[in-house]
Amino acid sequence: MPEARSSSGAVNRPLSPHLQIYRPLINMVMSILHRMTGVALYLGSILLAWWLTAAAVGPDYFAFVSGIFGSFLGQIILFGFTWALLHHMMGGIRHFIWDTGRALDIESVRFLSMMTGVVSVTATILIWGAVYLAR
Questions:
Q1: Are 105 and 64 in contact (CB under 8 A)?
Q2: Contact predicate 21/62, CB 8 Å
Q3: Fold classified for 26-134
Q4: Given this model, what pLDDT does residue 1 score?
Q5: What is the mean pLDDT of each run of 10 residues along the chain (135 residues)?
Q6: Sign of CA dihedral 101, 107, 112, 116
Q7: CA dihedral 121, 123, 128, 134 (to 10 degrees)
Q8: Rounded to an integer, what distance in angstroms lies between the CA atom of residue 109 and that of residue 31?
Q9: Which of 18, 73, 107, 113 could bond to 26 as cystine, CB 3.0-4.6 Å?
Q10: d(CA 93, CA 111)
């Protein structure tokens, strides 16, 4: 295939399209969120390790850490951690389905991607609602 050359003799090659060109698709958004929730789970695991360490150190330090997690900001962080855990899990199930060779047509990909978001948000709200009702 002959290459197009500019007047200076340089080869004009097409630029690779990036995010400015592509319209965000639901599966693209879910893929990015899956990666972000993976990072959030690493950070949340540090908080979990801190809480478990506090339980092993003694009742005073455990009460201190539990007080931090019980604060308004701590509750928001735990809510986000719960959502990240559920969203990442739903994304893993979605990828497992795809790994079996099923649901690879466009409509199924869209449906599973949307359900990843819907189920993770719904399950997070139901879990936290049950926790607050149990108090």
A1: no
A2: no
A3: 3 helical TM bundles of succinate and fumarate reductases (1.20.1300)
A4: 47
A5: 59 66 87 96 96 97 97 96 97 96 96 97 98 94
A6: positive
A7: 160
A8: 12
A9: 113
A10: 13
Which CA distances in Å does 106 have to 27, 41, 82?
Answer: 10, 29, 29
Largest pairwise CA distance in the chain = 78
Q: Which two tokens stand for residue 59?
A: 């009742």
Amino acid at 60: D
Burial class (CB in 10 A: 0-12, 13-18, 19+), 11: exposed
Q: Compute CA distances 19 → 14, 16, 27, 67, 113, whole Å.
A: 16, 10, 14, 43, 19
What secondary structure does DSSP assign to 21-35, as a single string?
Answer: TSPPPHHHHHHHHHH
Domain range list for the chain? 26-134
Written as six digits, the tokens of 9 are 């003799």
Can you say whether the dihedral through the CA atoms of 68, 69, 70, 74 is positive or negative?
positive
State the DSSP string of 48-73: HHHHHHHHHH-HHHHHHHHHHHHSHH
